[in-house]
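This entry is passed on directly below:
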Amino acid sequence: MAVYVDDLFATSPSREWPYPCAAHLVGDTEEELHRFAATIGLHRRWFQGTRYDLTALRRLAAVKAGAVQVSQRRMAKLLISLNPRSGAATQIPYRGQRYRVTPPGQRNPTKDKRNQSGQKT
């Protein structure tokens, strides 16, 4: 069993995440992930369903504690394997936003405002 951490990536600081970069921490099992997170000082309430978000300093602590470094692509595959419903076609709403997934080749009626004759309004 292992715990994985991906590369740092740039973020836009906000009220919820006031840091310029972030990384993700995931584990083979949720129990192992929580145990590891506690050893590097993460609170369980910071758990994001399948992962923890890390600051640059927490990422460094995770690597020093033995987390396996992986690329962002590998991390995406790990996250999808942990939660199959979070595949590329699924978008998770954030703070009240609504996303509607439109199949390829179809117009999204909420984005594309066209009248009956097919002209944009």
Remarks:
- The mean pLDDT is 79.
- Residues 72-82 form the longest helix (11 residues).
- The beta strands are 3-6, 9-10, 21-27, 52-54, 68-70.
